[in-house]
């Protein structure tokens, strides 16, 4: 196998995922690299960007060749090793250095820790939560419906999944915006698009999160109560020991609060934006929610991919998209590019409520790292859209507001805000 170091790939098209313009509107860039350089060496970040559906499916279903372990640290060190060292020292001096979360673990550690979340978020548990999620969604819509306008991000997309999770881990509902600040800090730091001072502030906020949960964890260690957090706190490893506090708060922040709320938030907001820009699709959906809502949810996940990409590391020399890639190389798997691959999806940029294979997207990953919270996310999306579309008509972007924009980031695609107007429907 010939090992190409990326010189040819960098010419096609020679731009970086780190560019703010690409962060805001990435889909033309994805089309270009998927067509011309499906294994693309990012000239600024240094990692390989993988963009084709079949390649990514092969990678995520072969964890022996493509490891998840320590990929974030490799990415940070590749972009700015001095800043990565600063971050580690700040954690050590004021809190606990984060431990690898589910998405950054290989088996057998991953399998052992995932079992807890699989049990806690099993289909039966999600069914038990369903009435609460439904009621919360309709209550949130009722608060703004009569006004004829709202910011979908702030008034529906953020609070719905956070309230659902907080109800399961014993966090007071009034603290959801404090939690939101901490999850935002984690996402922004993880996305590696911050200035030095911004990253310091994000780390300080994560350390606040660590200290906030310390007394809650200690109480649950003394008096388990059967809650999801209690199970996480008291789980025993094969050697009989408990998870360390650093492991507990890392799972809590990244796997539960970020993984269980940020992605749902972004998908709900992006779905509403799609409907505001497609009056025909919105009218069709509202005309028969039972028929079209399941496909719409899958199309939102496919088209907008709340998780744009995650990392893997090669454990041996491989060939992807005609490029030889050495062992130890960092790959960035662009799920969002794969979900618009015309080799898999006809007219891939089009919202199609009749699409037969909409659910074959990989917005939730695949293989051993398939998102354990996917069933919960789908129910949150279902009730958010049903509550909104049952309560309003003529949904549209608010007049006089700037074009909706996204927070910069390598991992998640998140709208800053989404002001909309509508005609209320009588309760």
From TrEMBL:
Q: Which SUPFAM superfamilies match?
A: Cytochrome P450
Q: Which organism is it from?
A: Novosphingobium marinum
Superkingdom of the source? Bacteria
Report the GO molecular function annotations.
Answer: cholest-4-en-3-one 26-monooxygenase activity; heme binding; iron ion binding; steroid hydroxylase activity
Instruction: Spell out the residue ranges making up region: Disordered.
Output: 1-20
Under what name is this protein listed? Cytochrome P450
PANTHER family according to UniProt: BIOTIN BIOSYNTHESIS CYTOCHROME P450, P450, PUTATIVE (EUROFUNG)-RELATED
| Lineage of origin | Bacteria, Pseudomonadati, Pseudomonadota, Alphaproteobacteria, Sphingomonadales
The UniProt function text for this chain reads: Cytochromes P450 are a group of heme-thiolate monooxygenases. They oxidize a variety of structurally unrelated compounds, including steroids, fatty acids, and xenobiotics.
Per the similarity annotation, which family is this?
Belongs to the cytochrome P450 family.
Keywords of the record, alphabetical order, are: Heme, Iron, Metal-binding, Monooxygenase, Oxidoreductase
Pfam families recorded for this chain? p450
């Amino acid at each position: 196998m010939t090992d190409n170091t990326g010189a040819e790939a960098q010419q096609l098209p020679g731009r970086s995922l780190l560019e703010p313009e690409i962060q805001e509107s990435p889909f033309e860039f994805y089309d270009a690299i998927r067509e011309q350089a499906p294994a693309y060496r990012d000239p600024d970040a240094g990692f390989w960007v993988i963009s084709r559906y079949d390649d990514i499916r092969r990678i995520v279903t072969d964890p022996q060749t493509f490891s998840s372990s320590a990929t974030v640290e490799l990415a940070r060190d590749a972009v700015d090793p001095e800043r990565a060292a600063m971050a580690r020292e700040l954690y050590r001096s004021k809190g606990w250095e984060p431990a690898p979360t589910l998405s950054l673990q290989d088996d057998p550690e991953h399998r052992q820790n995932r079992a807890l979340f699989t049990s806690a978020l099993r289909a039966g548990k999600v069914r038990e939560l369903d009435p609460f999620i439904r009621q919360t969604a309709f209550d949130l819509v009722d608060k703004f419906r009569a006004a004829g306008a709202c910011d979908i991000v702030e008034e529906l997309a953020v609070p719905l999944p956070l309230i659902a999770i907080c109800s399961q881990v014993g966090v007071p509902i009034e603290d959801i915006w404090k939690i939101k600040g901490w999850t935002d800090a984690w996402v922004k730091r993880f996305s590696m698009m911050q200035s030095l001072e911004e990253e310091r502030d994000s780390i300080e906020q994560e350390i606040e999160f660590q200290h906030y949960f310390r007394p809650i964890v200690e109480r649950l260690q003394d008096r388990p109560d059967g809650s999801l957090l209690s199970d996480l706190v008291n789980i025993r490893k094969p050697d009989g020991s408990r998870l360390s506090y650093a492991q507990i708060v890392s799972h809590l922040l990244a796997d539960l609060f970020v993984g269980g709320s940020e992605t749902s938030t972004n998908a709900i907001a992006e779905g509403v934006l799609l409907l505001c820009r497609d009056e025909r699709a919105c009218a069709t959906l509202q005309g028969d929610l039972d028929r079209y809502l399941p496909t719409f949810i899958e199309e939102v996940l496919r088209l907008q991919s709340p998780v744009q990409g995650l990392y893997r590391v090669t454990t041996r020399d491989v060939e992807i998209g005609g490029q030889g890639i050495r062992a130890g190389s960092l790959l960035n798997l662009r799920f969002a590019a794969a979900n618009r691959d015309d080799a898999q999806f006809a007219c891939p940029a089009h919202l199609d409520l009749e699409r037969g294979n909409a659910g074959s997207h990989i917005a939730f990953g695949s293989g051993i790292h398939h998102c354990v919270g996917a069933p919960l996310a789908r129910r949150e999306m279902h009730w958010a859209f049903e509550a909104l579309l049952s309560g309003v008509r003529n949904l549209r972007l608010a007049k006089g507001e700037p074009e909706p924009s996204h927070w910069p980031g390598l991992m998640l695609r998140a709208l800053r805000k989404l002001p909309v107007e509508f005609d209320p429907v009588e309760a």
